[in-house]
Structure formats: C-alpha cells, structure tokens
Design a protein that fits this description.
Blueprint (H helix, E strand, L loop, with lengths): L1 E5 L10 E5 L8 E10 L2 H7 L16 E9 L11 E5 L8 E5 L3 E3 L6 H5 L2 H14 L7 E5 L4 H12 L3 E6 L2 H9 L4 E4 L5 H8 L5 E6 L4 H8 L1 E9 L12 H6 L3 E4 L2 H7 L1 H16 L6 E6 L3 H9 L6 E5 L3
Parallel strand pairs: 8-9, 8-11, 9-10, 11-12, 12-13, 14-15
Antiparallel strand pairs: 1-2, 3-4, 3-6, 3-15, 4-5, 5-7
Helix pairs in contact: 3-4, 3-10, 9-10
Bound molecules: NADP nicotinamide-adenine-dinucleotide phosphate.
Length: 326
C-alpha cells in the first residue's frame, strides 16, 4: 500500500484527504517512481477545483511535478535503471509515495539539486527560461518586467533574467513580496496594488519603458504592463493567476509595433524540441553555477491540503513542496 492525496469532490483544496491506495504497477512503456518530493504548481489548485483546461476525472490524486527514484520498469522499458534519481511532470498523481509515468517523460535530476529542489525546479524554470529567451527574445542589458515576481514562475523569471544579464523590474503585491524579488536580483520593484504599474515601470526604466514583459498573472495588470512597453517591445503571456483573462485592445500593439506572444511549455516541447533541449542544457549550466529554486515551505503529505490552500490564497512565495519521505 502507499499513501496518496485524494480529491473526491471538485472544490477548494481544503477538501483533499490522504488515503491508502494499492501500489501502482507500470504498464508497457511506463516506469514506477518512488516519489521523494512533489512541488505545488498553480494548475494543481485549478485541477482540484475543476477549473483547468484539461479535466481530471474523480477520484484522482493531484500533484504534477516530482523528483524521486526509479522503483520498477514496465514491459518494454530498458531504462533508466532501478535506483536512478529522476524528475518529471505529469497532469496528476505526484502527491503520492509512488507514481507511474511514461518512461519518455522522465529527465535526470540536474547535478547539484537535492530532491526537494529538483521537484521544484523544472516547470517554473523552463517556463521562465523560454518565456524570457526562446519566445521573449530577451538579451543582456534589456529591461524585463516580471509580474507576480515572488510567485513560482515569477521568482524563477527574476532569477533567470538576472543571471542572463537582463535588468529586472519586479511587480508584486506588497513590499515583502518585492523584497523576495529584489533578493533574486530585481533592480526595481512596483507594488501593483498600491502603485500605478505603467507609470512606475516607465520611471524605473529611465522613461523609455520595458523591452520585455513576462506575465504569469493576467487580469488588469496585463494591459498596464503592455502600455509600459517601449516601441518594438515584447509581451509574453504565460498564465492567469489573477483568474481574469485580459482582453487587450489591438491598437496598443499596433501603436507600439509591439509583439505579443503566448507561451505554453507542453506546446513548446511538441513544436520546438530542439529549443527545449538547448534550454535544459542552459538551465543545467546555471544550476552548476549555483542557481537554486526558491523553496519557501516544505510540508509532509499530511499537510497537502493546507499547502495547496496557501498557494490558492496567494500566501506563498517561490515554491511550496510536499515531502513524501517525511
Ligand atoms: N504557460 C506555461 O507553460 C505555464 C507554466 C507554469 C505555470 N503557468 C501558469 O502561470 C501562472 C502562475 O503560476 P505559478 O506556479 O507561478 O503560481 P504562483 O506561485 O501561485 O504565483 C502566482 C502569482 O500570481 C500573483 N497573483 C495575482 N493575483 C492572484 C490571485 N488572484 N490568486 C493567486 N495569485 C495571484 C501572486 O503574486 P502577487 O500576490 O504578488 O500578485 C502569485 O505570487 C498560473 O496561471 C499557471 O497556470 C503557465
């Protein structure tokens, strides 16, 4: 038997329970992973509420990003060998002591990361990296604005942008969250609850506006940030943690000769696998140089409901991780 989080009714995450389930067995092409740590991502909250673009049929075990050790190989699978440390992402199933995943979806744990940080790394850092570079075309010396800069994707974007030599303006709700972003390298901060986002971005970028905006938040902040782009600037829409999907007047895009691009990590894997592989190599190099995801809290599985509730209620910074070995 194994312990696993369980969602039996859609709704807020405080309805999650922890139950005993039969040990899963890997089928053809699959691998059984003994999960050591699983990170909370905002889509986990959306899946539990049945507000994600892909529904998860009830009952299900939430959890989408994990690190652990290969425990068994399914028929036709030749590796990675039992005992190999691996990390991966799934739609559901990772808040459990064991998870079955397609062998092709596993990746090595970047050298230098422990299991907690490995679980918290790939989704947000790959998203940040490609939003900034592959899609956002950011280059050293440019001004990048990161919305939700203390959150999972946001903190990773501040971290990666700074390490790639971009100059970062962080936008977040409140001074404590801006302090988190400053510690990761942001030069300027805008409290978008109390300050006018467009005006402050313009001021902080010397009057010219930003070259690039990375937006995992959406809502009303998106248009304000777009208005603070300089001519020819790029706006990358990554997510809608605000809950409201922005509707942008296209004339703003025309008047600035701006570029608005969408980014979705699974889609990029499908149409640009070479860019994804190059990104993985670049991220591994940054990890070797000391880059680590910001993990603000680690919970035992028994606290999985409160871990997701904290993320849903905007109370966390960086990443929250569930430790399946605790
Ligand atoms: N496109 C992709 O491939 C991709 C990949 C990963 C994630 N995402 C999406 O990116 C978004 C952010 O994910 P994440 O993991 O960074 O989430 P997160 O850690 O919860 O951070 C989201 C941030 O959004 C801000 N926010 C503003 N309004 C909010 C609200 N009403 N509720 C919650 N947060 C709010 C919060 O910062 P402040 O309080 O400072 O405003 C929070 O730090 C999600 O929509 C997720 O689905 C997309």
């Amino acid at each position: 038997m194994m312990r696993a989080a369980r969602c039996t009714d859609y709704g807020p995450p405080d309805g999650l329970t922890v139950v005993d389930l039969d040990d899963p067995a890997p089928g053809p092409g699959e691998v059984l992973v003994r999960v050591h740590a699983a990170a909370v991502n905002y889509p986990d909250v959306l899946l539990v509420a049945n507000r994600y673009q892909v529904p998860a049929p009830l009952p299900f075990t939430p959890g989408s990003e994990f690190a652990g050790v290969v425990a068994a190989l399914g028929p036709g699978v030749s590796g990675p060998a039992v005992g190999t440390p691996v990390a991966g992402a799934v739609l559901t199933g990772a808040f459990a002591e064991q998870v079955v995943v397609p062998a092709a979806g596993l990746r090595p744990v970047p050298e230098g990361l422990d299991m907690v940080h490995a679980a918290a790394f790939h989704v947000t850092y790959a998203t940040a990296y490609h939003a900034l570079t592959t899609v956002g075309q950011g280059t050293a010396g440019e001004w990048a604005v990161v919305l939700g800069a203390a959150g999972g994707v946001g903190s990773a974007a501040v971290d990666v942008a700074t390490r790639l030599g971009l100059r970062v303006v962080a936008a977040a709700s409140g001074p404590e969250r801006l302090t988190v972003a400053r510690k990761l390298g942001a030069e300027g901060g805008v409290d978008y609850v109390r300050e006018d986002l467009k005006t402050r971005i313009r001021e902080l970028t010397g009057g010219e506006g930003a070259h690039l905006v990375v937006d995992p938040v959406g809502g009303d902040h998106a248009e304000a940030a777009l208005r603070a782009l300089r001519r020819g600037g790029r706006f990358v829409t990554v997510g809608y943690a605000d809950g409201k999907i922005p509707r942008i007047p296209l004339n703003l895009v025309l008047l600035k000769n701006a570029v608005v691009r969408g980014f979705e990590i699974r889609m990029l894997r499908r149409y640009a696998p070479d860019a994804v592989a190059a990104g993985d190599r670049a991220l591994a190099r940054l990890v070797r140089e000391g880059m680590r995801p910001l993990v603000s809290r680690v919970h035992p599985l028994a606290e999985v409901a409160s871990a997701l509730t904290d993320v849903a209620q905007r109370r966390t910074t960086g990443k929250v991780v569930v430790d399946l070995t605790a």
